[in-house]
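Much of our argument rests on the idea that a fold can be written as discrete symbols. Part of our work consisted of pairing the sequence of a single chain with a tokenised description of its backbone. We regard such an encoding as a compact summary of how the chain folds. The amino acid sequence and the backbone structure tokens for this protein are reproduced below.
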Amino acid sequence: MDSPHQTHEGHEKSVTRPQPAPQADWEPQPTSTDAAVVVQRAAARPSGLRPAEVLQLQRSIGNRATQRVLERSERGPAPSTAPELGAAVQRKPDTTKYATTTRSALSPELQAGLTLGQASPTSVPSPLPDWVATGARPTDGKPYNSKERKQFAFKWSRTFANNAGGLPGVAGAGGYNEYYAQPSAGYTGDDVWGQNRVLRQTNDPDGTFWWTTADHYTTYKYVTDA
């Protein structure tokens, strides 16, 4: 006979023991109230956002924007459109379309005009360059008069419209400033200012570039090292 204190195996009471929770493959992060932090988390792991963080996004950037963030996160990061390190980036006028020159290849008069334009791009140089203040007009050898000196000051850094479209940009839309340069030696035309001009290009988002013309806006050259 079995002992009254003995328990049959078949009658033993079943006991359910708690099982250890499965290990997550990512480290939980504390709930954040910073929308920027939440967006970063969404980009890294959208499934890791807590309901409170999604609600924080909705309050901060709106429901539609939150939905877009989550959708982008689920699709994964978009391909990068940024140039790789060392990749060539076009940041100057297209030298296959326009004539080019270097500073040293310019005439002495255009070199001096370029230097003066770069030194004083938006205001009239003071004092005026010697060739205007005390020099002689190429047309008759007489000094520039006060009216002509005022004209020089008036024209300095004036907008050049590029009406003929010979320069980059939309024809007639401007985007350039012009500067008089000393007439070339031996000039025999009837313009007291000769034909030399310097132009500063300001309509290019990649920078400011310099051009010259030695035939009064008939042809142009981009100064590659200006």
The chain has a mean pLDDT of 80.
